[in-house]
């Protein structure tokens, strides 16, 4: 599964990404982290199965570590997440660490082997 979040760099400073990861992860782990600068017709990618079908945003991804989000610009943070086994998993948020700061979103994630209603 790929989970995503959009972040905006402050108007006066670039963000140099150090790490993107899950917070409060249980029975899941983040395998890879990417960013995609938004613009040039790219729309934020939502949470989606891995690997995503042909997707302009996914194709423009770059590894997150040492990537730069330009001042005042938006970027799509993407984490490739897998369950540790047959058990359902969860995380309480996604954390972005950059040179000089960090931010944790408040989105909780549920990863289930079977989705849907009764």
UniProtKB/TrEMBL annotation:
Protein name, entry field: Uncharacterized protein
Domain of life (superkingdom): Bacteria
């Amino acid at each position: 599964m790929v989970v995503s979040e959009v972040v905006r760099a402050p108007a006066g400073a670039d963000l140099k990404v150090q790490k993107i990861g899950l917070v409060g992860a249980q029975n899941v782990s983040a395998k890879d982290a990417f960013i995609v600068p938004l613009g040039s017709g790219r729309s934020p990618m939502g949470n989606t199965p891995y690997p995503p079908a042909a997707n302009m945003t996914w194709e423009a991804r770059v590894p997150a570590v040492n990537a730069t989000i330009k001042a005042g610009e938006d970027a799509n943070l993407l984490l490739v997440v897998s369950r540790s086994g047959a058990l359902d998993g969860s995380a309480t948020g996604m954390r972005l660490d950059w040179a000089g700061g960090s931010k944790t979103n408040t989105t909780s994630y549920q990863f289930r082997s079977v989705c849907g209603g009764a």
